[in-house]
Each structure stands twice: as C-alpha cells, then as structure tokens.
Amino acid sequence: LVLVVDYGAQYAQLIARRVREANVYSEIISSKAGVEEILARQPSAIILSGGPASVYDPGAPTVDPQLFEAGVPVLGICYGFQAMAQALGGTVAKTGQREYGRTSLSITQGGCLLQSLPNTLNVWMSHGDSVSRAPKGFTVLARTAGAPVAAFEDVSRRLAGLQWHPEVLHSQWGQQVLEHFLFNIASLTPDWTAEHMVTEAIDAVRMTVGDRRVLCALSGGVDSAVAAALVQRAIGAQLTCVFVDHGLLREGEAEQVKNDFVAATGVELVVADERERFLAALKGVTDPEEKRKIIGREFIRTFEAQARELAGERGIDFLVQGTLYPDVVESGGGEGTANIKSHHNVGGLPDDLQFTLIEPLRHMFKDEVRAVGEELGLPEAMVWRHPFPGPGLGIRIIGEVTQERLEILRQADAIARHEVAEAKMERDIWQFPVVLLADVRSVGVQGDGRTYGHPIVLRPVVSDDAMTADWARLPHDLLERISSRITNECPDVNRVVLDITSKPPATIEWE
Ligand code: XMP
C-alpha cells in the first residue's frame, strides 16, 4: 500500500491513479491524519501531494518530522516537497517568483530518482515559494530558473522530493520519475493487476456475504455490470440481478444486458419489461424536470416491486452498489478497508426492506473498473460504454416522449455511434449525446420536394469528470458522414446541427 497524503489540491487522486498505473496499490489519506494514523495503515511508501498553501501561511498543513524516522520511504511533491524540506531542516524561501505551467528543468545529477533521463526536460510547475537549501544528507538533483533546488534525494533514508508535478501529462517522463521512486528507492513490487483486483474483490465479497443472498440492479452501465459480474464470480447463484427495461436505452443496449451479459457471466437475471408503463407515464409531458421525476419515480416503483417479490420468495440481505473510489474519497470516507456500509434508503428502496450495501468497486478508479470488466470477459461494448444518464433517451428528446420519436432518435444515435466506432474515436470522446428537437421544425428540400422536418443535434464532448466539458473537435469528414446518413436514413429528420458550447455555460445534456 502506498499512501498519498492529500494536501487539499486536485492532485492527490491523480497521483494515486498514476501509482496504480505502475501496478502498485495506493490510497489517499487526508493531511489532517496524524503520523500515528498514517503509520498504523502500514504503508510500504508514502507520497506527500501538492496543495494550494504556502508553508508560510498561518495554519498551513505541516509534516511531523517523525514521519521521516519510521523507515518508510517518502516522496514529497510540490507542496509536499517544501513541507518535507522544512520539516527536515532545509530552507524554504519566499522568492516572490511564481513558476506556473510548463517549465524547463535542468538535471544536474540523476541519482536514483532521475536516472537515465535527458539533461533538460519540460515539467509542469505550480509554486510560489521554493526550496533554497536542501536538508542535511540530501543530494540536489535538478533546478529550474525559479527553483534552485527542484529535486532531492537521500537514498540511505529512502526519502526524495520534487518541486514539479510528475503526475500530470504535461510533465515529460513523469511516470518514469514516479516509478523510479516506487521501484528504485522504495523497492516495491508491481503486483496490483486486474487479475489481482478480481481475486481480492472476490475474497472480500465472499467474506462479507457468506451464504446469504444479494440483489443487484443492472442499468446497462459499466459500473453496475462489473460490480454484478464480480459478485457473481464470488457467490454464483446467491446473486439475483434485476434489469428494468424502461425503453429509453439506446439501440442494442437492452439486448446487451439481457443476452450478452448473461451469456458472459451466467448471472441470474430478472427482466422487468416496463416499456409501456414508462411511455404511458411520460405521455403529454414536456418539462425536463417533470420528465426526470417521472422516470425516477417509475424506476423506483418497478425496482421496489421486484425487490419485494424476491425478498418475499427467498430473502435478500445485501444490495450491490457500483460506488467508485473517487466517490469514496470525495465523501471523506477514504479511510479503512471495509467494503460495506449500512444501507440508508439508497436506490429508492423502501425503509422496511433491510439491506446492507455491498460495494465491490469501492477501491477502484474508472479505468480499473474497465480493466476488471475485461478481465471478467464482459462484452467490449459494455466495458467501454460512454456514460449515459439514468433517464436515458427520455431527456434527449426535447418535447414529449413518444414511441415514434424514440425510434427516430435511437436510429440517429446508432448511426453516430457506429461512425465514431468506425473512425476508432470512441476512446477520444467522453460522451456523445444525440438529441432530437422534436418540437422544432425547419424547412428542407429532398428529392423534388419541400420537407418540414426536425433537427438532430450532435453533442460530442471531451471531459475528465463531467463537471466541466469542452466540445469535441471531431474531424469534418466524420461529421459529414454522420450528417448525411442521419438525414438520409432517419424519417422526419432533415437537418443535423453541431453543438459547440462548452460546459459551463451549457450542460452536457440538453435537459
Ligand atoms: P450535465 O448535463 O449536467 O451532465 O452536464 C453531467 C453528466 O451527468 C450525466 N447525467 C446523468 N446521469 N442520471 C445519471 O445517471 C441523470 O439523471 C443524469 N443527468 C445527467 C450526463 O450524461 C453527463 O455525463
């Protein structure tokens, strides 16, 4: 276990991910944790992350020098580097010279940390103060114009530090520098692989569940699919999955769950075909919030009815949730290794059904979930599926949702997805909503005749976390193919438009 001590910037999660990319397991711990708490976790190495503070700020987080005496290898990054230098008796100077962004770094001595790198490289910096004198026993390895001591190490004590951010992609050789720390200085073994994650998650589920019964709601999304497949691998027939087919999925997705997923995993699946119920409930509704409420409500009612029935027949003790590690970190629950927490009316289940939640993906990042999905042999289209909103196509038809409109949108969406896949650009795009403006008409001409049809909006975006997004610059010939196929093949569509708004000010979805 490598513990990443979080000094309050967005970098800690990225560092933890990079460590895992080196096949070493890592977790994040708050900088508010004391030395004893950190060491009690028995980390095999510690990384102190960057953070927004200056070591001179009143109340700035500090590092207890005892941390460096425990014999555990430590790497300080950016703020963590400065806090480390200060704690060990070096000097951090208020130079007043800020370095921000891409900066040229000169390596004066490779040492263990920077061995076999070029003499100069571009690295990503973001600091005001800088270390002007390394603590006793440390060798200075590199400098920049604004940082006379930009990296140091004391190999005998297995301590090292960097002023720049090796975890960001803009830093050349960043991953290598991290790996030099992990493998050359801390002598760790790269054993955190998809296979290992699967074994560990299976053991944990078996321990928790014993011979009791588990329920899982499948949505068609990657998280619930991988969670269910893991639990199935662990406890087999003690798991029952419920899939509510609300008729608002994209082409082929319901079949993926009903056929391919079941074939790949052997999961026992209960399908609730509620397509008509959802359509009836949405009849005449055009307000986006109203639609969301109705879809949510109907979903819960259906799932609740299924859960009650199953609970009555066989009893259900656990409910699977596809919670990921970033959610755990963000809700402040990073500590501890428990992979269950008690159920608090999650997923809209009635309070009188008593469940315990089981969260087999609680320690994983999204890319790890995908790796585990592949390891478990899930269909590729499911593992690499883009995020898709729970209310589905219901909020991608602007106007009333009808069967006919769903069919048009499903067809247009399938064309866009097919062409993106053909162009091998699926993994360059975060998400690609296709939207039908059902209440808008425009004039067109097709063959010899005037048409008066509806526009389809293409909304491809790039993003890291959906909190902000930018419109994806797709190649013009790809856009042209999508446009011409949609207008030729989809009835009543005579115009295709591209949404070129970032988020903010727009959101990713139109409703
Ligand atoms: P917006 O439109 O707010 O969307 O930029 C951000 C991300 O959230 C997804 N989204 C949803 N996901 N249930 C979901 O599970 C929902 O009701 C929902 N609404 C939006 C959206 O697709 C995007 O990835």
From TrEMBL:
Database matches in SUPFAM superfamilies: Adenine nucleotide alpha hydrolases-like, Class I glutamine amidotransferase-like, GMP synthetase C-terminal dimerisation domain
Catalytic activity: XMP + L-glutamine + ATP + H2O = GMP + L-glutamate + AMP + diphosphate + 2 H(+)
Residue sites binding ATP per the record: 219-225
Pfam families for this protein: GATase (PF00117), GMP_synt_C (PF00958), tRNA_Me_trans (PF03054)
Record key words, sorted: ATP-binding, Glutamine amidotransferase, GMP biosynthesis, Ligase, Nucleotide-binding, Purine biosynthesis
InterPro entries reported in the protein's UniProt record: Class_I_gatase-like, GATASE, GMP_synth_C, GMP_synth_GATase, GMP_synthase, GMPS_ATP_PPase_dom, Rossmann-like_a/b/a_fold
Pathway(s) this gene product operates in, as recorded in its UniProt entry: Purine metabolism; GMP biosynthesis; GMP from XMP (L-Gln route): step 1/1
Active site per database record: 78 (nucleophile), 165, 167
Classification via Gene3D superfamilies: 3.30.300.10, 3.40.50.880, HUPs (3.40.50.620)
CC terms in the record's Gene Ontology section: cytosol
Entry EC number(s): 6.3.5.2
GO MF term (any one): ATP binding
CDD domains named among the record's database cross-references: GATase1_GMP_Synthase (cd01742), GMP_synthase_C (cd01997)
Sequence intervals crossing the membrane: none
Subunit structure as annotated in this protein's UniProt entry: Homodimer.
Described purpose of this protein according to its UniProt entry: Catalyzes the synthesis of GMP from XMP.
The protein, known as: GMP synthase [glutamine-hydrolyzing]
Species name: Tessaracoccus flavus
Lineage: Bacteria, Bacillati, Actinomycetota, Actinomycetes, Propionibacteriales
